[in-house]
């Protein structure tokens, strides 16, 4: 039958109808899945005995909780960590189980992911990591960590997403959605105020409501309200005298009542301390009681957990209402129907090329070029060139150690291996230079190697080279970038500061490859020609570092936290011991909302390197910076537009950052706060117009007088730049 050619209008109407009917089907499906899940939960709840319900609320082993065998309800299996699936741990102690099928892809640590300022990459990162967790048959992945970078000494900063709540909130959402697309629960941690490792399980944090809501909670709130995270881990520390893991304000009111969180609260390992508080203040699954979360553990008789026998007794006596138990069980069953009882759960994958590519891409895009005098980097491969690679971090595994986030990767390309693989013509020579102890959790075992002979050998090696790449920094051993304790010094350890001076004395062409998850002092900075901050990059570390050093990748990373010149310039270290590390186990966050660049801006303390800073091998020109109105209503969004042009001869990427401040205000304010950013990739000579939308209501401050957010009317200042201390233009606008 000859049909008349459809008019374009008819075709477009047809397409729209098909599109909306598909949307509707999808929405119904999603709705069905949550309402179907609700029905399944109620049907299952009815079948469970009291004892079976209580057993669901606590561990049966180090990393699993009981199922209900007679009903076919599976156990829940958990595994660390935020940047890779940890090797199998023994049933009831912290030793590794010695499996030979549990090696995985080690992805970069989350400071590197944050440094990419690229939410799309975060989604790929989360999805790939979730696939590996799924393949390892894990139902809960114990990550991401989003505790705010308050002090450069915190042993676990490397696992988190920096000092700014907006950056952490923006980057954590796609990561969680990516993980959970695999039918694996992400578990955002550690809720909340676990901002140091020293005395983490004892210290009582005191901080204002305003700083709590404006700085320390936003990333958790985004995880819950924007990413619909299915699990959350309570922190070890106390807050205003109560343990954070079962806390009347944090877990009961803010998380479950105000944010309407429908997932499970899992304790950190041994962070539960009371049956009543666990029951009444929102803890759902108790893990690790009787262990210290990493090293020591008593052989656990799981029935002495707080949510075990004593919980059962108090339920039977009526001291704790059964409804309290049923709320926990509903959440725990919901976790199961979202994961190991879901009927359309995808398969997982591990150690595949796509994951290696994602790991390499995040690594290369997160590396930050800090200094590049006379275009020291990139270093071209040349048969007449001799490059000396010096420093223990050029060969030392950085996936081993660090605490619970340590990994057993199928492979880990070291910086030296990566450089050797990349430079086929140049001559690469190597010397260890310095040596730290092995990666152990709670003690420092000095290296057996003689420091002086290492130093002398390194100087000899440096003499023979045209260029020296000094690969140093910190390590994942105790008192370094490691869980369980904090660093005791801000400068580089293991004699590196002396060594770098000795090397520069014999060779002027030195580039420093910093392998750390934290800021460090750089008294040697003027003596070196280039510095790149390379984080902990996982399996593909060496290739990613070689990508940037050789120019195969043009660095575009930006610092997710400030590098102060000296420790005393940091906010947390400006108020004496009560502020850090605390006195008699009480700690006061006296800097309040002025964390990181907020402190440096407002107190006018020049940083060594600023939040949001990072160089490129090319240059960009930003012009036509405009905002769409002069006055905005509260419901409006501010549209910031500008033109970015790559005026250099190498393709690259820039991150346009939007900060907003209010000079006249009824409350104390930081000079400016990050409220938007966008990464723009441009070929050489290419330009692009970008638009960044900023909801006006995101400018509200947390008003302690009304215990709620309050959007002040009046004039605001918008700062457009590419670093907290590099603003191209300021504009004013008002909110009426
Ligand atoms: C550790 C850590 C936590 C980890 C858990 C299990 O103490 O604080 O991040 O997921 O115990 O290893």
Question: What do these coordinates show?
Answer:
There is one protein chain. The chain has a six-stranded mixed β-sheet with strand order 1-2-3-4-6-9. It has a six-stranded mixed β-sheet with strand order 10-15-14-13-11-12, with helices on both faces. Mean pLDDT is 95; it is low at 1-5. Helix 1 (8-47) packs across helix 11 (322-338), helix 4 (119-135) packs parallel to helix 5 and helix 4 (119-135) runs antiparallel to helix 12 (353-366). Strand 7 and strand 8 form a beta hairpin. It contains 17 helices and 26 strands. It starts with 7 loop residues before the first helix and ends with a strand. It has three domains: 35-90 and 100-338, Glycoside hydrolase, family 3, N-terminal domain (TIM Barrel, Alpha-Beta Barrel); 361-558, 3-Layer(aba) Sandwich (Rossmann fold), CATH 3.40.50.1700; 619-735, Immunoglobulin-like (Sandwich). It binds alpha-D-glucopyranose.
Shape field: globular
Quick one: how many beta strands? 26
The structural class is alpha/beta
Please estimate the helix content.
Answer: 25-40%
Work out the radius of gyration.
Answer: 26 Å
The amount of beta strand, in percent, is 15-25%
CATH H level, superfamily name of the largest domain = Glycoside hydrolase, family 3, N-terminal domain
At the first level of CATH, the class of the largest domain is: Alpha Beta
Kindly report the average pLDDT value.
95
- Please name the CATH architecture of the largest domain: Alpha-Beta Barrel
CATH-defined fold name of the largest domain: TIM Barrel
| Poorly predicted runs of 5 or more residues | 1-5
Strand order of the largest sheet: 1-2-3-4-6-9
Question: Which sheet architecture does the biggest sheet show?
Answer: 6 strands, mixed
* Whole-number total of structural domains: 3
Quote the distance from N terminus to C terminus. Answer: 63 Å
**If helices are DSSP runs of H or I spanning 4 or more residues, what is the number of helices?**
17
- List cofactors, ions and other ligands: alpha-D-glucopyranose
């Amino acid at each position: 039958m000859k049909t008349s050619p459809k008019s374009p209008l008819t075709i477009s109407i047809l397409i729209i109808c098909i599109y909306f009917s598909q949307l509707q089907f999808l929405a119904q499906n999603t709705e069905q899945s949550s309402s179907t899940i609700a029905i399944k939960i109620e049907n299952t709840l009815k079948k469970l005995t009291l004892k079976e319900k209580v057993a669901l609320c606590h561990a049966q082993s180090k990393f699993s909780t009981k199922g209900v065998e007679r009903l076919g309800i599976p156990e829940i299996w958990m595994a660390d960590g935020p940047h890779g699936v940890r090797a199998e741990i023994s049933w009831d102690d912290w030793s590794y189980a010695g499996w030979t099928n549990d090696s995985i892809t080690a992805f970069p640590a989350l400071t590197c992911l944050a440094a990419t300022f690229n939410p799309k990459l975060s989604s790929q990162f989360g999805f790939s990591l979730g696939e590996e967790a799924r393949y390892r048959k894990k139902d809960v992945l114990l990550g991401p960590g989003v505790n705010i970078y308050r002090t450069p000494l915190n042993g676990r900063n490397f696992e988190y997403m920096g000092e700014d709540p907006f950056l952490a909130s923006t980057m954590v959402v796609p990561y969680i959605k990516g993980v959970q697309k695999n039918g694996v629960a992400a578990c955002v941690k550690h809720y909340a105020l676990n901002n140091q490792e020293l005395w983490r399980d004892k210290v009582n944090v005191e901080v204002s409501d305003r700083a709590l809501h404006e700085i320390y909670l936003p990333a958790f709130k985004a995880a819950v309200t924007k990413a619909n995270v299915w699990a959350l881990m309570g922190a070890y520390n106390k807050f205003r005298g109560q343990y954070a893991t079962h806390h009347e304000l944090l877990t009961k009111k803010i998380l479950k009542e105000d944010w309407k969180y429908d997932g499970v609260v899992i304790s950190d390992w041994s962070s539960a301390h009371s049956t009543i508080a666990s029951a009444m203040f929102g803890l759902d699954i108790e893990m690790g009681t009787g262990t210290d979360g990493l090293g020591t553990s008593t052989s656990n008789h799981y029935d002495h957990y707080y949510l075990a026998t004593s919980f059962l007794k108090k339920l039977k006596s009526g001291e704790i209402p059964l409804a309290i138990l049923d709320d926990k069980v509903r959440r725990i069953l919901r976790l199961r129907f979202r994961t190991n009882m879901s009927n359309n759960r995808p398969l997982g994958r591990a150690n595949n090329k796509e994951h290696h590519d994602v790991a390499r891409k995040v690594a290369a895009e997160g590396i930050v070029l800090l200094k590049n005098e006379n275009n020291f980097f990139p270093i071209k491969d040349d048969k007449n060139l001799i490059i000396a690679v010096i420093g223990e971090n050029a060969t030392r595994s950085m996936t081993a150690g660090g605490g619970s986030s340590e990994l057993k990767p199928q492979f880990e390309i070291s910086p030296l291996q990566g450089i050797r693989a990349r430079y086929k013509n140049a001559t690469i020579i190597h010397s260890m230079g310095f040596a730290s102890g092995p990666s152990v959790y709670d003690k420092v075992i000095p290296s057996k190697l003689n420091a002086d002979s290492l130093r002398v050998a390194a100087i000899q090696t440096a003499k023979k080279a045209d260029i020296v790449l000094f690969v140093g920094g910190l390590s994942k051993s105790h008192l370094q970038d490691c869980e369980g304790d904090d660093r005791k010094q801000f400068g580089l350890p293991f004699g590196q500061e002396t060594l770098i001076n000795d090397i520069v004395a014999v060779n002027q062409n030195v580039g420093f490859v910093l392998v750390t998850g934290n800021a460090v002092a750089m008294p040697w900075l003027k003596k070196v020609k280039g510095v790149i901050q390379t984080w902990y990059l996982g399996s593909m570390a060496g290739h990613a570092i070689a990508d940037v050093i050789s120019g195969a990748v043009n660095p575009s990373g930006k610092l997710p936290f400030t590098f102060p010149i000296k420790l005393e310039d940091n906010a947390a270290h400006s108020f004496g011991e009560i502020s850090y590390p605390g006195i008699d186990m009480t700690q006061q966050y006296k800097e309040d909302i002025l964390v990181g660049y907020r402190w440096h801006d407002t107190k006018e303390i020049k940083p060594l390197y600023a939040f949001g800073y990072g160089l490129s091998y090319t240059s960009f020109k930003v012009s036509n910076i405009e905002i769409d109105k002069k006055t905005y209503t509260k419901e409006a969004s501010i549209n910031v537009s500008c033109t970015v042009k790559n005026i250099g001869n190498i393709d690259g990427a820039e991150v346009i950052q939007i900060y907003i401040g209010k000079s006249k205000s009824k409350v104390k304010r930081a000079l400016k706060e990050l409220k938007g950013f966008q990464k723009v990739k441009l070929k050489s000579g290419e330009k692009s117009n970008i638009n960044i939308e900023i909801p006006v209501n995101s400018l509200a401050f947390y008003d302690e007088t009304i215990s709620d957010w309050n959007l002040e009317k009046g004039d605001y200042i918008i700062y457009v730049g590419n670093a907290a201390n590099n603003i191209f233009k300021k504009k004013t606008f008002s909110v009426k």
